[in-house]
Amino acid sequence: MVRITVDLIRKRSEHNEGEISTLEEIALHQENIEKIELVDKLSRSLKILLMQNNIISKIENLNMLKKLECNEHLKELFLTGNPCTEYLGYRDYVIATLPQLKELDMTEITRSDRIKALQKYAEIEGDVIRGYWNYCKIRKKQIDSFNQREKLVITEVPSNLQDANEEYQDQDQDENSKFWNSKSYHTPEDRVAIANKTIETAEKKNKKKDNKLDKNKYIPKLFNSEGHAYNINQAKIAIYRDWLHLDTSYVDIDVQPNYVRATIKGKILQLSLPCEVSTDSSVAKRNVATGNLVVTMPRLAPLPSLVKPLSYATKSCNKPRSRKIVRSAPVVSRREFLEIGPRNEEMDFSKIYKENNFNDKDRSNFIDDPDVPPLE
């Protein structure tokens, strides 16, 4: 059976940010709880306590909840299904005892109902007390009858283990069918027995499912017979990309000299490496903005350099270099335009432009006359 623990109370107090001491409302229904405990010590400020569909046989350990016990503002009360509803004068007794009630068992309490209940209160109180003692006698008979039905039946155990398992399964099925087809009574013992049988059946089903999953679970083969690692991508993850919403705690990177393995939520992504890498110098980093996971694995043996050494380059730079201009011979093409015959010499582009000496004159016989005024 489920017991009330600190973890259960904290789990059901998420609306209060997990704080137990200041908790005012908690719902513990449908948990198969058998006994009320710890609630009065951990959450003394409780005002609302919901515990439907449990198998609690006795209301206890609530004396420390003053705000719940002294609930002066109680306006609605539901007692449907409780044995006290069968007492003679039950409704009038509750109305007269709790004057602040506005509704009882989803039925509105009118002013005339309250007046009649107060007028008959002295008579009703005795009827309720007598109904309680009559119910106690009925409960004693119900308990004795239940104990007689629950007596153990001793059977012979077969010697063969396989026969024992088969017989146990058949016997278990017969007991289940007999239990569910038998007549039950509206008593706490029968309700507890039904709850226990339901829990037992659910546990057996879950156990069978787990056993099937364990048997049929595929175990991937990570290495071949020669010890080389396979390329495995169970999660079907794109190698060049990782999701931003995938938390880093779900990713485990294992870098080995000949392969790298990434375990993502239990799924394996394994890549075989073409050369041996240095595991000590390998680094795995994740980009905060994009979520990309980058694994840097330097080679153990670096690649040979294809660049000339620096010493050779400096020596060659210091040496004087003689430049030679080699001109190729003119090549005669098959089709020539605007030319007749082959060229005798190569075209010199430096002689395209010539200085214009057209206005230059011979000034060897020039005589300067001082009487002539200068040009303005």
TrEMBL record:
Question: Looking at the Swiss-Prot or TrEMBL record, what is one Pfam family this protein matches?
Answer: CS_DNAAF11_C
Q: Where is the Dynein axonemal assembly factor 11-like CS domain?
A: 195-299
Q: Which GO terms describe its biological process?
A: outer dynein arm assembly
Cytoplasm listed as a keyword: yes
**Source species, please?**
Cotesia typhae
Q: What keywords does the record list, in alphabetical order?
A: Cell projection, Cilium, Cytoplasm, Leucine-rich repeat, Repeat
Q: Which InterPro entries match?
A: CS_DNAAF11_C, Leu-rich_rpt
> Where is it chiefly localized?
other
* This protein's GO CC annotations: cytoplasm
Query: PROSITE patterns in the record, alphabetically?
Result: LRR
Question: What is this protein's name?
Answer: Dynein axonemal assembly factor 11-like CS domain-containing protein
- Top-level lineage group: Eukaryota
Question: Where can this protein be found?
Answer: Cell projection, Cilium; Cytoplasm
